[in-house]
What we know:
Elements: E1 8-9, H1 15-28, E2 32-34, H2 42-52, E3 60-65, H3 75-86, E4 93-96, H4 107-119, E5 126-129, H5 133-143, E6 151-154, H6 162-171, E7 175-178, H7 190-199, H8 203-213, E8 217-218, H9 225-231, H10 241-248
Parallel strand pairs: 1-2, 2-3, 3-4, 4-5, 5-6, 6-7, 7-8
Helix pairs in contact: 1-2, 2-3, 4-5, 7-8
Amino acid sequence: MHMPQLGLGTFRLQGQQAIDSVRNGLELGYRHIDTAQIYGNEAEVGQALAESGVARGEVFVTTKIWTEHLAGDKLAPSLEDSLRKLRLERVDLTLVHWPSPGAAVPVAETMEALLAAREAGLTGAIGVSNFPVALLREAIAAVGAANIATNQVELHPYLQNRALAAFARNAGVHLTAYMPLAYGKVMDDPVIAAIAARHGATPAQVTLAWLLAKGHAVIPSSTRRENLASNLRAPVLTLAAEDLAALDALDRGERLVSPDFGPQWD
Length: 266
């Protein structure tokens, strides 16, 4: 199943809040839902999917394997547990959420286990998340770029990850932008606000349209139905070359997610 380029993220959404966000998203027309083992909301996402009335074949579901399950003998059982929580026979995409801290588990071991999980029918596609160039190169060497559906990384106007984006593009690996609205910082940016005013759009729509124009997928999240609806209109917004250039100029290498167990960033 083709991954819709605009999806609904569920990071930080818990309990009824997660159920409501996914239910609202599906009612509004989202057909790409992103979760993860560490989010602690796979069961809620699964409940919302089951109660939505939307046919399973119409929704692209992504989950991510947490670091403690990256060993070859642990990955598939953990994914099976995720499937039980999600009430699904398989997910559409499974990602390595973070590289193994301290390289405790070799990238090749994890990628080969992920590929085996795909061959076993547990997931439709596989990929990685938070992989800098060096580790993405290792993943490609292990299973081939054609078997890596995406690398999900932090991407927004203030962190444009240009070295990684260039490497991924040349290698034929797609990127998915998480934290695309920079924790809402784009809402108060005067440059983005001016572009939004010219287009009769919101700063969020402008930012998402900019990322989509680069060929990236985006997975913004929101607990507010009106914001979910608004974000869904981003793909119809066409930005002018000068708009894109103005957003490009906002890069300042501002990383918002960098845990102490994270990799060496580019």
